[in-house]
Design a protein that fits this description.
globular, 6-stranded mixed beta sheet, 8 helices, alpha/beta
Amino acid sequence: MHQRDRPCCQPSFTKLEGVVVECRKCPRLVHYRETVPPKQPYQNECYWRKPVPGFGDPHASLMIIGLAPASHGGNRTGRIFTGDRSAEFLFRSLYSVGLANQPTSISRDDGLKLHNLYITAAVKCSPPQDKPTKEEILECHHYLRNEIALLKNLKRIIVFGKIAFDAFRLFAKEEGVSMRNMRFCFGARYLLPRLPTLYVSYHPSPRNTQTGRLTQEMLTSLLYNAMENIDHDLG
């Protein structure tokens, strides 16, 4: 990604990104991200193999929280939701609703820009089998909290998958807001006192998109709904 496109153009994001990229707190994740063998199409590529910070518009009203960088996506390219099938699916919808300037996310220098949107993950390192431990999620949680705090215009958050949902639940608990009766359910919209409104989606992973559990129309519609509420709130 070009320097002008990155949220770290603001000093506070610069500091956070630097801390995230240097993190080595979780030995299992460090070992996995640094040793996972390249897939056949990427044999000649140099993998990123470091934690992957969020990216997007530092003035965004909408935030998307995913699970973690994919082993051969974000862990390879150095940008979340970049260079894998989840990215292909997600950015078709983001482009169609005007949140991205192009329908693809291939590499950090592909010219991608996000409009009024910031994308991150609950866990910044790629976990084996896409399954971080509870302890690893907790170790990474303060990075997510800082990202939320830095987005001063934030009104809505969309979580992709149960792990991202639980990460937001932890954030809400720390802010003194109970989510006791709120469940992970696609399309759910939770209005929370003092916090961004929460929208819930399945993760755009191949296991969900190839089985029809999450369709392009479902995701696009959810994005439209979140954007309409943002526009209403910003009046």
